[in-house]
Design goal:
CATH topology of the largest domain: Cytochrome Bc1 Complex, Chain A, domain 1
Number of domains: 2
Strand content: 15-25%
Number of helices: 15
Structural class: alpha+beta
CATH architecture of the largest domain: 2-Layer Sandwich
Helix content: 40-55%
Mean pLDDT: 92
Number of strands: 14
CATH class of the largest domain: Alpha Beta
Low-confidence stretches: 4-30
Shape: globular
Order of helices and strands: EEEEHEEHEEHHHHHEHEEHHEEHHHHHE
Length: about 450
């Protein structure tokens, strides 16, 4: 089976397309009934009991992402995510994947800088067998040498194929520019050289350090009652060590005001500007979120889209986004433009950023932004049982309360123009870090 593990997405997708088109009978706008379940071994998980679809979705996250990779072994966590369905317990790779296939179950693992994620979607009437497989993968991954070499070769091939990809170059150079020597600047996917140093013992050691009962957030959605959910949680995670053994990651200080040029012989120039941000638990978060949406958020109505692309035709793409990590926050503006228009595009972006800091937003812009941000939440986060389970885990990852979804609309509606003006001044006044990728002349 030819698999392609990636740092942000890696899945072994099997026969489950039947359920992608099924609706989920959970009322999001009303009250999503989330139960906080405690297992006999003291593990906690959030449960949404839903009986409209005969599917159980389990999502979980493990603290400690690619920042935990040892020096010289970057790519360790990423390699690990490619191996969980390559054999566990007494089942080798072929036997394990055959069982998954027979059950019509889907299992996937991925990793980012802060956390590793796993999920399984299964038919409700086959959940016991599927959960047994997930428990094996979580507790007793084999990390067989044959599988390690095969997945390593795939990752190395992908890395070599992406060496000249402008997006890959931009991401790596940007992280180095703004984070310096902080672990966030690591190449989480690794390099051919660092991947080559990773052994089975390294994988076992990293697994033991991260996979522990005090280091897990769990979400379950489906025709499951609280008592059964508690049993499922212990079945999958109860045999893990009590405490994780992670290296401490310090808060990251953004290196702003600097500039980096990457010479790349293409007729297009990519520009990235990085400003300070606010973390998810900051009281000013929703003011920053709405401000960012108005400045350069998704869709065709943002100021940057209107001024840079629609009115002037300067850019192919333009937008802004909040970069949220556990130990850092930033606001990034990015665009791709003809190299001959790079200076004009940069000046237009800077002017729009300055206008936001100077003048804030209009009442109509704020009302439109609130309407979109409130209305799009269900579509983006509640479209399926897997989406809801992922949302339950994400809320826990962000240390948000269990009633957050109920309170979210009121929190957004409470944001004022004055609050947006204040956060815009705070975030957009400093000189940003600037990354330019394109031809040396143009």
């Amino acid at each position: 089976m030819n698999k392609k593990p990636h740092i942000f997405h890696r899945a072994s997708i099997l026969a489950f397309s039947l359920f992608l088109s099924l609706g989920l009978g959970v009322s999001v706008a009303g009250a999503l009934n989330i139960e906080n379940v405690t297992s006999k071994k003291g593990l906690h998980g959030w449960l949404v009991e839903d009986n409209t679809v005969p599917v159980v979705s389990i999502q979980f996250s493990i603290g400690g992402g690619t920042t935990q990779d040892p020096e010289g072994k970057e790519g360790l966590a990423n390699l690990m995510t490619g191996l969980f369905d390559e054999g566990a317990g007494d089942l080798d790779s072929q036997a394990f994947q055959g069982r998954l296939d027979d059950l019509g179950a889907e299992m996937a693992f991925s990793v980012n800088r802060d956390r590793m994620r796993g999920n399984m979607k299964m038919l409700a009437d086959k959940r016991n067998e599927a959960i047994n497989l997930l428990a094996l993968a979580v507790q007793k991954p084999r990390f067989d040498n044959e599988a390690i070499e095969r997945i390593r070769e795939q990752l190395v091939a992908e890395l070599k194929a992406s060496e000249k990809d402008p997006k890959t170059i931009a991401q790596n150079r940007l992280l180095t520019l703004i984070y310096g020597k902080h672990p966030y600047s690591k190449k989480g996917e690794g390099t051919p050289e660092t991947l080559g140093t990773i052994s089975r013992d390294d994988l076992l050691k990293a697994h033991h350090a991260m996979f522990a009962r005090d280091n897990i957030h769990i979400g379950i959605v489906g025709p499951v009652k609280a008592e059964e959910a508690a049993t499922i949680i212990d079945k999958i995670f109860g045999a893990l060590p009590e405490k994780a053994d992670l290296q401490k990651i310090e808060e990251a200080k953004l290196n702003l005001g600097g500039m980096a040029n990457v010479n790349y012989d293409l007729p297009q120039t990519s520009l990235m500007l990085v400003y300070p941000g606010v973390k998810r638990n900051d009281p000013q978060f929703f003011a920053a979120y709405l401000m960012n949406y108005i400045l350069g958020g998704p869709g065709l109505t943002s100021r940057l889209f209107s001024e840079v692309r629609e009115k002037r035709g300067l850019a192919y793409t333009v937008g802004s986004s909040l970069m949220l990590y556990e130990h850092s926050a930033a606001l990034a503006v990015s665009t791709g433009t003809r190299s001959s228009e790079a200076q004009k595009t940069l000046a237009t972006i800077r002017n729009e950023v300055k206008k936001m800091a100077d003048d804030g937003v209009s009442e109509q812009e704020l009302e439109d932004a609130k309407s979109y941000v409130i209305g799009s939440y269900a579509v983006q986060n509640m479209g399926s049982s897997s989406d809801i389970a992922a949302t339950l885990v994400g809320l826990q990852d962000e240390n948000l309360p269990i009633d957050y979804i109920e309170k979210r609309q009121a929190l957004i509606n409470a944001v004022t123009r004055e609050q947006i003006k204040a956060i815009a001044e705070k975030l957009l006044r400093p000189e940003p870090a600037l990354l330019v990728i394109g031809p040396s002349k143009g």
